[in-house]
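ligand=flavin-adenine dinucleotide
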Amino acid sequence: MLKLKNVKSCFTPNSIQEAIDMLKKSDGKAALVGGGLDITVFPNPIIEQFIFLNKLGLTYIREDEENIKIGATSTITDIAKAPVMQNYLKGNVKIALAEIASELLRNQITIGGSIARHHFYSDIIPALYALRATIMVSDGELIEGFFVDDFYRNDLKTLMETCIVVGVHLNKYDDSFQFGLKRFVRNATDIALLNMAILAQIEEGVIKDVSISVGSRPGPAYRFEQGEAFLRGEKLTEVLAKDFESFTKSNVDVAKDMRLSKEYRQHLAGIYAKEILLDFIGGVR
Ligand SMILES: Cc1cc2nc3c(=O)[nH]c(=O)nc-3n(C[C@H](O)[C@H](O)[C@H](O)COP(=O)(O)OP(=O)(O)OC[C@H]3O[C@@H](n4cnc5c(N)ncnc54)[C@H](O)[C@@H]3O)c2cc1C
């Protein structure tokens, strides 16, 4: 490929340690390759070596009592099709994943590549915020878990010079929890102009706990904590959903860019906030 003309060598290490050693030795001239989508669409001319991650045994979706454990080289398709995801949060995480981008892109994008690349328009990252995921990172010797909010407080560039994202752990939630994700795109292959993910625990009609994330705003995805405080402890009704639409419009932290005005993003965020809540109660839009 002409775009990758500076790449002189490709490695396929068999262990995380070997991959990290190669990364450290490369003096910033090597790139890890997950699905390779980003690396080929946005090639970095400095890169002379590729370190492929596909032989590290990181393509899996497993579960134990408390978590769903996803290996870093699992693609969006792998995750959406995994048996364990079919009923996870009533199948709504699977449905959200299956609607991201196009099938060809979903077959290529890995969860590790999405986490490490940290595109502000990512649909995966708001989902991970709302799901309160734990990002698993290894320096070759130890594997450390970071709560997603803490992970993105790191200087990611520095962390990724000596570490690999090895996977992500999702908590298992009981039936009182609901999940929804909405993204605004103009066509199937477009990147989102705004996205929002909500996880809520609803017991006897009351929102006991909630996490909300907004992304592609156009800054990085963030936790909409004011929105969470607005909803926590409230009875989930259609009236609340409509009140939450207005609250979100006024309080969500969005801005304009060349693709969308601030006002339109506020409007979309309000609509999505309301629609996701209405979906939780099967309400009328
Ligand atoms: C045309 C296009 C459309 C897109 N549409 C969407 C969309 O609709 N929704 C969405 O959420 N995202 C979308 N994306 C963004 C996409 O999710 C990211 O580009 C993601 O990084 C691609 O994953 P990958 O595995 O192919 O990454 P790669 O290209 O393999 O890697 C991306 C970066 O992450 C590093 N990396 C990869 N794996 C790891 C790892 N395990 N540990 C540490 N570093 C690692 C690489 O070195 C590189 O710097 C789109 C991207 C493109 C190019």
